[in-house]
Specification:
Number of strands: 8
CATH architecture: 3-Layer(aba) Sandwich
Bound molecules: coenzyme A
Distance between the termini: 37 Å
Shape: globular
Number of domains: 1
Largest sheet: 8 strands, mixed
CATH class: Alpha Beta
Radius of gyration: 16 Å
CATH topology: Aminopeptidase
Number of helices: 6
CATH superfamily: Gcn5-related N-acetyltransferase (GNAT)
Length: about 200
């Protein structure tokens, strides 16, 4: 598996790219204005570690280190040239698994435009076809209807519920796991998304 980073992926008006220092003001603005929008779905620490990141620069250093080691692909999501959210492929594993797990958010002001389905399509195609991953997984709280629509549009397979699976919004929360393996999308996920009626 190539440890190539930075990576930039684009389809139409959606672009995935690494966060950079010049994103600092826009990133903080997004996080502040979307605090309530994101709170229910945010990963938290079971041992009460709040934000161990001393600064945006420190935060970027951590992301870059993870990307260089090949454990995570931490993308910013751009829409029409504006930073609007993040998509991270995390826990990239090799061995006999070759899997990764995708998480995402976008700002409320651009929700409902199909940005995240496209972003997931881009990331999944890149992971499966350029990084050799065999499986892509997405874990979603059963009450997150908007996110459930994302995997439905992309045709991910429902693999059932994992009880108290992830620490989200300050507690252990049940999640539904959705997945695709390479054999499911020989044509690529973006191509499949484009073929959806409507
Ligand atoms: C879930 C989320 C990533 C979806 O991204 P998106 O780019 O808006 O995806 P889509 O445009 O395909 O919209 C998905 C669904 O969101 C819902 N939606 C659309 N506009 C919305 C809005 N303004 N507010 C709330 N929900 C909306 C609709 O049900 C839509 O499905 P539809 O297209 O069949 O109507 C986004 O809502 C988000 O970031 N939410 C907060 C963080 C989060 O839940 N992250 C995922 C954790 S698993």
């Amino acid at each position: 598996m190539a440890a190539g980073w930075p990576v930039v992926l684009a389809a139409g008006e959606v672009r995935l790219r690494p966060l950079r220092r010049s994103d600092e003001a826009a990133w903080f603005r997004l996080r502040v204005t979307n605090r309530e929008w994101l709170a229910r779905w945010e990963a938290t620490s079971p041992i009460g570690v709040r934000s161990a990141t001393p600064s945006f620069r420190g935060f970027l250093r951590i992301l870059r280190r993870q990307a260089r080691r090949g454990t995570d692909l931490p993308f910013g999501i751009e829409y029409r040239g504006e930073l609007v959210g993040q998509l991270t492929v995390s826990g990239l594993s090799r061995g006999s698994l070759w899997s990764g797990s995708i998480g995402y958010w976008v700002s409320e002001h651009v929700a409902g435009r199909g940005i995240v389905p496209t972003a997931v399509g881009l990331a999944a195609d890149y992971c499966m076809h350029s990084r050799g991953l065999h499986r892509i997984e997405i874990n979603i709280r059963p009450e997150n209807e908007a996110s459930l629509r994302v995997v439905e549009k992309l045709g991910f397979r429902d693999e059932g519920v994992r009880l108290r699976f992830l620490h989200i919004d300050d507690d252990w929360r049940d999640h539904r796991t959705f997945a695709l393996t390479r054999e499911d999308v020989p044509e690529g996920l973006l191509a499949r998304l484009a073929r959806r009626p409507g």
